[in-house]
Amino acid sequence: NRIVVLISGNGSNLQSLLDQAAAGRLNGSVVAVISNKADAYGLERARAAGVATAVLPGKDYAERERFDTDLMALIDSHQPDLLVLAGFMRILTPGFVRHYAGRMLNIHPSLLPKYQGLNTHQRAIDAGDAEHGCSVHFVTEELDGGPVILQARVPVFAEDDATTVAERVHVQEHAIYPLAVRWFCDGRLAMKDGRAWLDGTPL
Ligand code: GRF
Questions:
Q1: What is the pLDDT along the chain (203 residues), one digit of tens a residue?
Q2: Measuring CA to CA, how many Å separate 48 from each of 19, 44, 45, 145, 198?
Q3: pLDDT in the model for residue 170
Q4: What is the 200 CA–ligand 1 centroid distance (Å)?
Q5: 119 known ligand binder
Q6: What are phi and psi of 148, to 5 degrees?
Q7: Is residue 84 part of a domain?
Q8: Is residue 139 in some structural domain?
Q9: For residue 134, which atom of ligand 1 is closest to its CA?
Q10: What is the rounded distance in angstroms from the CA atom of residue 114 to the CA atom of residue 127?
Q11: Of 11, 151, 155, 196, which shows the fewest CB atoms inside 10 Å?
Q12: Where is the site described as Raises pKa of active site His found in this chain (predicted)?
């Protein structure tokens, strides 16, 4: 399987995918990493792993549609089976989402449907949640609203702040994202009727 990863920043989730791919545990390889930020550290991770990189700066575009059209052409030039969003901080147009429907995954740092959007760790703390976590989901036109595939939970302690909770969640992200990608590459995952399916059973 050919996997293209979109990033905007640090790329620690990208790293876990590169590591698992190198260990032969993805049943696929990352063929390209594309960032909308030229200074994203994840680009260095990709280069270190010998993976092709490209930068498409959002600030060069006045219109979201134009950016997404160019991004699609760039992605499709690598003929991906799967498109993986890993900290890609842009809202995608409906046309883009439709084009990759059922073959685009995202990871979100909350127990969806809780805390769609930004600042999830602080919001969980402010709400006094005893539990927080992360979710891998198929991407649909609803931001952070696509069908959930896999979640991991972490405890929230009284002495936690957003940084300590984020660290705890990140460890889990790095475990569950490669697992979901592997399921997809093994042909076990699908999106149908607005739900995620594993081995023919709705999740
Ligand atoms: C992660 O917390 C992920 O859940 C969110 O963006 C962050 C990306 O982190 N979508 P990294 O760039 O993979 O380190």
A1: 999 999 999 999 999 999 999 999 999 999 999 999 999 999 999 999 999 999 999 999 999 999 999 999 999 999 999 999 999 999 999 999 999 999 999 999 999 999 999 999 999 999 999 999 999 999 999 999 999 999 999 999 999 999 999 999 999 999 999 999 999 999 999 999 999 999 999 99
A2: 11, 6, 5, 33, 33
A3: 98
A4: 29
A5: no
A6: -80, 140
A7: yes
A8: yes
A9: 4
A10: 11
A11: 155
A12: 144
| Ligand 1 neighbourhood includes 125 CB (under 6 angstroms) | no
Q: How many domains does the chain have?
A: 1
> Could you list the residue range(s) of the whole structural domain that residue 11 is in?
2-106+133-149+175-202
Task: Ligand 1 pocket test: pick from 8, 10, 13, 105 the residue with the most ligand atoms within 8 Å of its Cβ.
Answer: 13
Q: Does 178 sit in the ligand 1 pocket, CB within 6 Å?
A: no
In a domain, 111, yes or no: no
State both tokens at 164: 């300590």
Task: Tell me, yes or no, whether 138 lies in a domain.
Answer: yes
- Domain harbouring 180, CATH code: 3.40.50.170
ipTM score for this prediction: 0.97
C-alpha span between 80 and 132 (Å, rounded): 32
With tokens 């005893």, the residue in question is 130
What separation in Å is there between the alpha carbon of 148 and the centre of ligand 1? 17
